[in-house]
Model the fold of this input.
Amino acid sequence: MDFARRLYQRFSSLVHELAKFGSIGAVAFVIDLSLLNLCNSVLDLGPLTSKVVATTISTTFAYLGNRFWTFRHREQSGLGREYFLFFLLNGIALLFGMLTIGFTTYTLGLHDTLSFNIANIVGVGLGTLFRYWSYKKWVFLEATEPIPVELPEGGVKQER
Done:
């Protein structure tokens, strides 16, 4: 029975973390897709420049959501360090999108909006797998001490 309880607790935590990560990712995806199409179709920035602009903005949203909601229970190793690593790893994940969009647009010669968006979705999917793994490994580290859920009963003592 104890084994089953521990298994449930471990699995439950992972499911909650994945649900939060997925929620933040879904909103970031909508931001990315909207800005990507705005920059490419309306502002005519070109497919790769549009991808860089959209990803930069959606990544900023994703960092804030993941730091302060998804992985808030993990150790905070410094905002500067986390932010740098987060954007570095997102830069690597951006390459997946750039490669799929570049291949579709320049190699296959498909310039229609549907092909462009399908290439983006494939790139985002591959990048998401990489990001989830890398965030847990290098950005949002496991807490070395349990983080208290509530303040202690006594509260803060005041000196007189």
Q: What stands out?
A: The CA atoms of residues 63 and 83 lie 7 Å apart. The mean pLDDT is 82.
